């Protein structure tokens, strides 16, 4: 893997880690949330690093990725499953030009709203979640999210998770653009989940 493939994979791992935190505890790291959600509106970056305003913002993702790839280390099955699911969903998206066009238009709308609101504002997060629900979920590759049922029922939790998954799709797009292949990651199933 080249450095940009590793960076995109680290970003997907960081998304997966934050989804875990929201699903299990109802909260996540605000700086990571801002970094990841901001990547969604980076549609014409000067360099791959600009998608995340520099690789230093992906420290947690790199750490998670290293733990996943280390020989003999205990693998986090949820992380592997989330990353594999994001790659699968991105493949379905890239094969659907109508959905790609709709995604581009909806992201432009969000970009305009950022003149008045922060990327982590609840209304913007809800808008990003709606893009995920209406453009990506219908593609049929639903990602199971594991967490506390009482948290997963809450609208705010669902919005954050879906907005983060949309950021994960952005990273999966970058991964594919940089020549990444899904076979680097494999995944298996577990109980107590909710489909997003």
From TrEMBL:
Q: Which InterPro entries match?
A: HflD (IPR007451), HflD-like_sf (IPR035932)
| Compartment annotation | Cytoplasm; Cell membrane
Q: Extract the SUPFAM superfamilies matched here.
A: YcfC-like
Keywords associated with the record = Cell membrane, Cytoplasm, Membrane
What is the name listed in the Swiss-Prot or TrEMBL entry for this protein?
Answer: High frequency lysogenization protein HflD homolog
- Topology in the membrane? Peripheral membrane protein
The record's similarity note reads:
Belongs to the HflD family.
Superkingdom of the source species: Bacteria
Q: Which gene encodes it?
A: hflD
């Amino acid at each position: 893997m080249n450095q940009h493939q590793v960076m995109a994979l680290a970003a997907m791992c960081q998304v997966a880690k934050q989804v875990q935190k929201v699903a299990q505890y109802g909260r996540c790291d605000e700086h990571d949330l801002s970094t990841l959600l901001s990547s969604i509106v980076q549609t014409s970056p000067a360099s791959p690093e600009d998608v995340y305003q520099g690789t230093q913002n992906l420290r947690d993702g790199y750490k998670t990725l290293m733990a996943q790839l280390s020989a003999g280390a205990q693998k986090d099955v949820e992380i592997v499953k989330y990353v594999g699911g994001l790659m699968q969903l991105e493949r379905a998206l890239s094969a659907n030009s109508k959905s790609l066009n709709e995604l581009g238009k909806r992201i432009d709308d969000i970009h305009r709203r950022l003149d008045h609101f922060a990327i982590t504002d609840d209304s913007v997060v809800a808008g990003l979640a709606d893009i995920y629900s209406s453009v990506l979920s219908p593609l049929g590759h639903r990602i199971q999210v594991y967490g506390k049922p009482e948290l997963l029922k809450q609208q705010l939790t669902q919005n954050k998770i879906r907005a983060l998954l949309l950021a994960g799709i952005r990273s999966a797009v970058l991964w594919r653009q940089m020549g990444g292949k899904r076979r680097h990651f494999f995944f298996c199933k577990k109980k107590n989940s909710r489909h997003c």
